[in-house]
Amino acid sequence: MARTGEVDVVILGAGINGAGLFRDLCAQGVSCLIVDKGDFGSGTSAAPSRLIHGGLKYLETGEFGLVAQSTLERNLLLKNAPHYVSPLPTVIPIFSWSKGMWAALRTLLGSTSAPRSRGAILIKIGLAIYDFYGSRHRVMPRHRLVGRRRALRDMPALTRSIVATGTYYDAKISHPERLVLELITDGLAASMLAAAANYTALVSSSNGVLTFRSKGAGQSEDSGVFSVRPKLVVNAAGPWIDDVNALLGAPSKMIGGTKGSHILLKHDELVRSLAGRMLYFEADDGRICLVYDYLGLALVGSTDIQADNPDTVRCEPQEIDYLLESVRALLPGMSFGRDQIVYAYSGIRPLPASDTSVPGLISRDHSAPVAEPEPSRPFPIISLVGGKWTTFRGFAEEVANTVLNRLGRGRKVTTRSMAIGGGKDFPTEAVARTAWLAEARSATGADLRRLDQLLSRYGTKALQIARHQSPWSNEDRLPGASDYGTSEIDYIVRNEFVEHLTDIVMRRTTLAIGGSLTMGDLKQIAAIAGRARNWGSQRISDELDAAVAQLGDKNLVRL
């Protein structure tokens, strides 16, 4: 592309929405370049509640179309990405039988009043509607309501002030950052006319030409600079959309984001009590909170605070207090403290600009406004505003259809039943999994337990990783408590667009968020990356310092 200077579409931003669109356009044969100023999936897309859900709470605000699309896309993801997306039984503690009816009606009619307690009757109605919308491609059971006695027998740790609980099914995603990467690699595999670049910043837009600079360490000032002339630009920069539009010469005020923070607790008693279920509940101020088992830790979220600077976002002490107090009130028989936190993260939701005083009532729906070409800017700009992690495929399909129409082309394939990455041919049944593992063992000679780990981590791409042998170590295991192998890390560094140490421990693996990362492991990973990428001793030292600083300051990781 740099050589010819021509490309059909440039996508600015490689989060979930940009990556989903990239894969869709590549599948249609469109020449497409996707770039991100950081790592793929390192912004807002790395800071979700790690849920794939239909948006039960959006029924209150009358966003029935969003719920319909979300439940459909949830069901499709359970089929297309079964290696990362799995069902999640969700329990709603209920504290009254009839509260909230009139307040819910006012909200449905457009009131911007604060959220309030929702009684059993209201929740029953909502869950019945939710089941109806989730009936397309249904893969999970319908909801049920049980009284206080049965609820406390099922989960004794709950506060005894409940009157009932409702249980319904949504889904969770184990490796969201890897799913973003897989969408990009799927796109590259689908088209010889595609390219992707992380750590690449847009530096100028002039007379229809976009100029980029790679931020790779060790490069000279000009070696990482290239330019292309696109026919169309998609701004998928999330909370940075307005900044990017200004650089493109199309100033805008589209984003009015809110901040969401989460913490992960090492709390074995709570994880055992949850028994694979999520608690979805109201905090004292009416905000919706949640807690569920993520990789053996208790993930607690989330806050919803108006904020507009994604570059400095972090989980603040008052947010930690809020989240801890919320679970204390719900589970009074358990103790919760800061010493249990092994990881924290925060991100800005790229929601549309809004004047509402209640952040939770800002629409999570998406839109794609177009800035038409001008004499000094011959290409149109489509901005991807809002949206949810769950609906990325549907959003991408809508925008791809717009792009194809503007390019005068037709759609060749649909992504509705297109498997993602390691989800292709993934064995979802126990018998099929056993057969896959036996065949993989025969092909690689690897231990069955190890193959099972890799299959859970990478889907069917586990076979490639199992075949990869690190040239740097005879002992294929990191020195700390983790069960990641040195060959596994070496494969990731060589094949998955790794530029920095944090890419490996925060996005290509779950080492950091899973609470198993040790300083010894970090040093060994840096050494492996250094050998594979020809980093000198100073670069390795710098990478270690940067990783320790980021993990400690922003993620509260103690190494």
UniProtKB/TrEMBL annotation:
All residue ranges annotated as the Alpha-glycerophosphate oxidase C-terminal domain in the record: 414-539
Every FAD dependent oxidoreductase domain range: 8-354
UniProt entry tagged with the keyword Coiled coil: no
Coiled coil region boundaries: none
Entries under SUPFAM superfamilies matching the protein: FAD/NAD(P)-binding domain
Gene3D superfamilies: Alpha-glycerophosphate oxidase, cap domain, D-Amino Acid Oxidase, subunit A, domain 2, FAD/NAD(P)-binding domain
GO biological process terms on file: glycerol-3-phosphate catabolic process
Cofactors: FAD
One Pfam family of this chain: DAO_C
Domain of life of the organism encoding this protein: Bacteria
InterPro entries (alphabetical): DAO_C, DAO_C_sf, FAD-dep_OxRdtase, FAD/NAD-bd_sf, G3P_DH_FAD-dep
Keyword Cytoplasm: no
GO MF terms, alphabetically ordered: glycerol-3-phosphate dehydrogenase (quinone) activity
Keyword terms: FAD, Flavoprotein, Oxidoreductase
PANTHER family xrefs: GLYCEROL-3-PHOSPHATE DEHYDROGENASE, GLYCEROL-3-PHOSPHATE DEHYDROGENASE, MITOCHONDRIAL
Family, per entry: Belongs to the FAD-dependent glycerol-3-phosphate dehydrogenase family.
Protein known as: Glycerol-3-phosphate dehydrogenase
Source organism of this protein record: Mesorhizobium helmanticense
